[in-house]
Amino acid sequence: MRDELLTIGPFARLCRLSVKQLRHYDEMGLLAPVRVDAGSGYRYYAPEQTRDALTIALLREMDLPLAVIAQALAAEPESRAQILRAERDRLAERISGDQARLEMLERLAEGGLPGYEVTMGREPERRLAVVRAVCTPAEIGAKVEECVGRLLPVLGRAGIAWEPPLWALYPLDLEERMEIAVGVQTPHGAGTPGLRFEALPGGPVAETMHIGPYSQLLLAYNALFAAIHERGLRPRAPVREAYLVGPAEAPREELMTRLIIPVQESMA
Amino acid sequence: MRDELLTIGPFARLCRLSVKQLRHYDEMGLLAPVRVDAGSGYRYYAPEQTRDALTIALLREMDLPLAVIAQALAAEPESRAQILRAERDRLAERISGDQARLEMLERLAEGGLPGYEVTMGREPERRLAVVRAVCTPAEIGAKVEECVGRLLPVLGRAGIAWEPPLWALYPLDLEERMEIAVGVQTPHGAGTPGLRFEALPGGPVAETMHIGPYSQLLLAYNALFAAIHERGLRPRAPVREAYLVGPAEAPREELMTRLIIPVQESMA
DNA sequence: GTTGGACTCTCCCACCGTGGGAGAGTCCAC
DNA sequence: GTGGACTCTCCCACGGTGGGAGAGTCCAAC
Predict the structure, then answer these.
(1) In 3-state terms, what secondary structure has residue A38?
(2) Residue A20 CA to nucleotide D5 C1', Å?
(3) Whole-model pTM?
């Protein structure tokens, strides 16, 4: 095999990369030309390097960061596969996030920004039997389900009577470490192991109804917070969700969720 | 409603935006505070501005560019809905692109980078009856289908005998304006209106078989080009695909496609 | 009144990957 | 030996956000 070297332009054409890209990859040590002329600085690539260059182009096409590509190229097949799997998971997560975004955007594009009727009212005091969990914002959906799965057996075993709906309580801000609670309203069950109790004070609240998948809840909260602030009020934790029609009873398009945020005169 | 103004920090907390973001939005004219103290430069926001700020936060959450958000906020409801629909389409396209990427990444993560056996061989001369089209790289899939839909009736009406597979011809480089052709091998049909003919010269080729959805074809081409360049050969247009098992005959996981790239000694 | 601490201001730089363009130098075929 | 195509390095731009410096401001507590 003759090893006539290629200057950067022809080499770029072979691997479907731009000259700028190749220079950048050289500079960052991802793909160095086999020879660099000391005098002129000209980069010379060997035809064998197209293999790596094509691989880089392929992985870039899948949106892997250059740093990760560098890792993957340098790694043994085993850890390389591991890196690729990690990236696959990252991409899968991005897609599912984008799909939620898409659904919200659909709704916005069709219904416009309004579409939520916010009511200012009063809530009675409630006593909830709850289980708690700590999670990040991204995990909320899974964690709530998990909590429901923990809660119902406890209630059943203890023979505690309760009526729907299920409730969930959230902090006001979506932080990295947020404490949530899932429960039901009941006067019974004090002292049951695994159960905790939450006394929700009565008082003024803002509320609205969300019909549709949970991925679109953000829209409802947006309307809710806007209405609260416009009235010069301040939201107070915990935010309450009541699952009037849940995933067990209806397809995701028909879920009904009541959103309630306690409010307070801002002067207070 | 008392209009006690808020400094940037408390206002940021209300709308779940960072102080940096608010300053940036002010600077670019997206959301200006109602009052800026001439002496100190302090920004003062009115509680009513939380509505716009929340909307901005919401649209950013859906990944709309700030410039588009500015447009949307300024526009009438009608054109706003239009803008949102356009963004929805953009996002939908990104998702489908990402899904293709994900599938390729799956395959890479599982099978590793190898997985394609590239054969160097010789192809006989072939005479194809084709229809042509011009498209961008993103449209290829749809255009090829459209071409098939145009080709088959013409063949049928003219009573031209042919045998599977269907073939497609592509240029070497994926450019913005690429000419493609779809056809079948047949000795008949000269002069049929709507049909053109393509004489594929025989000679040395590199080829491989791709089994799976078309969204993963890039992987096969990567292996193919790498093999060609490693042997010091040069690919020649047109690239040929033969659809041995097409979408009409099998689910997408089981599609079989033969990829053939004519090659030439690089010295020539 | 003064002090201290929390807040705010403006500026610059960083990330990521790519492209554009300036200005200078190099290669090679005619 | 000359022209034209190529290459070099260097700086700046995009998008949106964050970090940090260094200076100034607000307000409550003493």
Answers:
(1) coil
(2) 17
(3) 0.86
